[in-house]
């Protein structure tokens, strides 16, 4: 999102009579964006089997979306600001619908992954435009707070809705409908947006930081692809090392470009503050550690526990409950004691929950091992998210508020992309090693394969626990904001 995204209220004192319908349209778009980050998780085992996708490549169904979304979000916001937010919003909806239709009709894995990437590209255009439109549509402080409350509720709870909807569609229709369902909804939203959403755009220099966008996105794609190739080629292979080296060079080039350009995509001053930098690092590490949980638990529940797609979606509902309860605990505490203690406490609880997940086995059950861990993890995350989002705006100048807020979403999406690729590779390597050690040179039995599969999940959970523990330590060291320093920037909803 650009530095101009958070606009001042419009000069007109007369409220837009269609503002609440505009809110409904924007809320639908936000729901689509959040849904598509999780809805395919439940469909993944079925889609993998139908399109003959390998274990090493299955993560691209998730990663292609989150990587494109997170990597292009800042550029998408700047494009929306200067080409017109309504125009960008409608283009994003139409493009998202087309990509969803292509993905639903995919005949091979390449077509599916490309469609998921295209969904992420158009979501990166649509999401910041939607947020900006809310800001300029609701000029009354109370109404704006109510509108952002609706927006935030959808952003927070939409993921669980996606998991449940993915289960229903996969079981009673087809995994393809997890993608196809977005197309008609997006088209209807675009039609209504033409009539009821007003255009707005930012003034000023319209130059874009294209070199920054290209180097950062290609660097992140190279990093994810390098992690993926490590499973088949090995961590020390020339292919893997070359990909990782090129990605590091591109990301270094991105930093150099941002330091030198007059119109940076990511002003370095935003992230070099201790409080804000600590929150972004924590957000990135949480993304790395958390996205893999949904992936591996989905496979564990469907393959090892024998759950249907619908039951798997239902089994994730306690995660939403934990988030809501944790957020309710954190909200009144943060303004009184500051963000550091709630953030550290939440991350420590999340780490404990991850460790609990490492205790699952072939013969363990959902109620005894999965649900308690999920509740602890989600409660910890609920405590963490609010103060983390608030800390991302501590001391930020008004002209940097948009990019500072968007960075929370970007780091979570990018972390999710990197984490899904990395943890999937680690899990696949753990499975290969386990089978080699326990099959005694013969074809592994079903029992050995099942035990090895669960072992691979627990290894991934241990890595996730370690990453989130590091986030807790970094938060304790870097975040020092006092209660009175917490941002009250008008128009910025926490958590975006």
UniProtKB/TrEMBL annotation:
Keywords: Cell membrane, Membrane, Transmembrane, Transmembrane helix, Transport
Gene3D superfamilies per UniProt: MFS general substrate transporter like domains, Multidrug resistance protein D
Transmembrane portions of the chain: 20-44, 59-76, 88-107, 113-136, 148-168, 174-196, 208-228, 240-259, 280-301, 307-329, 341-362, 374-397, 418-436, 456-479
Database matches in InterPro entries: EmrB-like, MFS, MFS_dom, MFS_trans_sf
Taxonomic superkingdom: Bacteria
Claim: Membrane is one of the keywords in the record: yes
Domain Major facilitator superfamily (MFS) profile: from-to ranges: 22-483
Record has Protease as a keyword: no
Annotated membrane topology: Multi-pass membrane protein
Localisation per UniProt entry: Cell membrane
Main location group: membrane
NCBIfam families given in the database record: efflux_EmrB
Protein's name according to its UniProt entry: MFS transporter
Upper taxonomic lineage: Bacteria, Bacillati, Actinomycetota, Actinomycetes, Micromonosporales
């Amino acid at each position: 999102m650009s530095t101009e995204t958070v606009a001042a209220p419009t000069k007109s004192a007369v409220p837009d009579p269609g503002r609440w319908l505009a809110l409904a349209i924007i809320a639908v778009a936000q729901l689509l964006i959040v849904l598509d980050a999780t809805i395919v998780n439940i469909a993944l085992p079925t889609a993998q089997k139908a399109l003959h996708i390998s274990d090493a490549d299955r993560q691209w169904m998730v990663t292609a979306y989150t990587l494109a979304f997170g990597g292009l979000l800042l550029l998408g916001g700047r494009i929306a600001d200067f080409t017109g937010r309504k125009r960008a919003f409608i283009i994003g909806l139409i493009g998202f619908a087309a990509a969803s239709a292509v993905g639903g009709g995919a005949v091979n894995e390449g077509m599916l992954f490309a469609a998921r990437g295209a969904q992420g590209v158009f979501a990166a255009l649509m999401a910041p435009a939607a947020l900006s439109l809310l800001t300029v549509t609701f000029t009354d402080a109370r109404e704006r707070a109510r509108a952002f409350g609706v927006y935030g509720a959808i952003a927070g709870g939409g993921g669980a809705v996606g998991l449940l909807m993915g289960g229903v569609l996969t079981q009673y229709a087809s995994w393809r409908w997890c993608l196809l369902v977005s197309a008609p909804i997006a088209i209807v939203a675009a039609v209504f947006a033409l009539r009821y959403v007003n255009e707005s755009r930012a003034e000023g220099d319209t130059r874009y930081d294209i070199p920054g966008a290209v180097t950062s996105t290609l660097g992140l794609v190279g990093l994810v692809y390098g992690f993926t190739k490590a499973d088949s080629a090995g961590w020390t292979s020339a292919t893997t090392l070359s990909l990782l080296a090129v990605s590091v060079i591109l990301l270094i080039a991105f930093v150099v470009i941002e330091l030198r350009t007059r119109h940076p995509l990511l002003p370095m001053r935003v992230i070099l503050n201790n409080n804000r930098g600590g929150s972004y690092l924590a957000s990135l590490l949480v993304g790395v550690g958390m996205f893999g949980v949904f992936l591996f638990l989905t496979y564990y529940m469907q393959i090892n526990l024998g759950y249907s797609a619908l039951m798997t979606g239902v089994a994730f509902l306690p995660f939403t409950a934990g988030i809501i309860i944790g957020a309710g605990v954190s909200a009144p505490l943060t303004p009184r004691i500051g963000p550091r203690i709630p953030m550290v406490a939440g991350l420590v609880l999340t780490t404990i929950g991850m460790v609990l997940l490492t205790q699952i086995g072939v013969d363990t059950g959902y109620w005894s091992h999965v649900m308690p861990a999920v509740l602890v993890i989600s409660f910890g995350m609920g405590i963490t998210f609010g103060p983390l989002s608030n800390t991302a705006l501590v001391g930020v100048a008004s002209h940097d508020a948009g990019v500072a807020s968007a960075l929370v979403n970007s780091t979570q999406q990018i972390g999710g992309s990197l984490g899904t690729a990395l943890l999937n590779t680690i899990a696949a390597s753990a499975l290969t090693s386990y089978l080699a050690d326990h099959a005694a040179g013969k074809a592994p039995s079903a029992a050995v394969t099942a035990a090895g599969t669960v072992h691979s999940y627990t290894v991934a959970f241990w890595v996730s626990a370690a990453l989130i523990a590091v986030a807790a330590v970094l938060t304790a060291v870097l975040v020092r904001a006092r209660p009175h320093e917490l941002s009250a920037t008008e128009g910025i909803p926490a958590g975006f």
